[in-house]
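Hello Y.,

Per our agreement to keep a running log of every chain we model this quarter, I'm adding this entry. I've kept the format consistent with earlier entries: sequence first, then predicted structure.
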Amino acid sequence: MTTSTRGAAKTPAVLVLEDGRVFRGRAYGAVGATFGEAVFSTGMTGYQETLTDPSYHRQVVVMTAPHVGNTGVNDEDMESKKIWVSGYVVRDPARVPSSWRSKRTLDEELDAQGVVGISGIDTRALTRHLRERGAMRVGIFSGDAVSDEATMLAEVRKAPEMTGADLSAEVATKEAYVVPAIGEKKFTVAAVDLGIKGMTPHRMAERGIEVHVLPATASVEDVYAVGPDGVFFSNGPGDPATADHPVSVMQAVLERGTPLFGICFGNQILGRALGFGTYKLKYGHRGINQPVQDRTTGKVEVTAHNHGFAVDAPTDKVSDTPFGRAEVSHVCLNDNVVEGLQLLDKPAFSVQYHPEAAAGPHDAAYLFDRFVSLMEGQRA
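Predicted structure for the entry above:
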């Protein structure tokens, strides 16, 4: 429930967590009520890419950086066609954007797209609360949606949980489309859209790849109808335990031995395809400053993340799978969470983070080159 109301900054707003904690502030963006899973993002920049990342579908994002909106909103940095977050929480919104690229304020963009937010609360205290107690359901209420705390809390507790949520088909393209190669075409890739970010096919196109982006419901026959040299599985929202269809499609790709690359949700799909389980992290990894070690080279990368689930695979040994030997190729140095997988007997690998780096560091851009090398090797 949202109501587009300018001048919302003067309207009281209330944030209510499912464990009963309450924060009071001012409306930011649209006025009304919204619900989702409360998560925090540690990025100090790139808020426009965060807002338009389909992986944030049905999540209320808390920004840990205190000052948000200072570069406004432009028409070039969108990662998809709309804002996907269900709610937005900031401490100190910029009053006037300061960027020559800005077309409108962040407040105006949130309002225009019906995204209910709240500002003026202690986001540091809220982040510490989520770190200690874990990601949980939350509601933001402003304007006429504000009522007594018991009523608002009851509404929050009626909202669906992220565990068990099957969301990729809700954010993926409904029709296939093609991103042409930039310059000479070298390869064709079938990309299964589970919530793909726009920069991902662009990074492949930069390397001479023609990318056929397919709906999340694409069949094995749809994938191979484009004559792919490689197959890609994208990032996306929801619980990987529900993704039985993408898992079955990936297993068919693995059986054929086609070079395969997965990012984020695609990493979890590969984990499941190989027979590993998945589990929900306490509060997830989100932001553009997460340290990950590539165990195949020993290098440490600063990486961009957005995931609340992870693969449960052994990090201390090579595992036998139905598709040959597999190992954990990347780990998060903060908590040893699995951040990448690779097969040793077939041309397939994946990472849990975002090498397209929109926004974020470019340390992991080499992974697209690694995918190209797999396709070159297969062709040779």
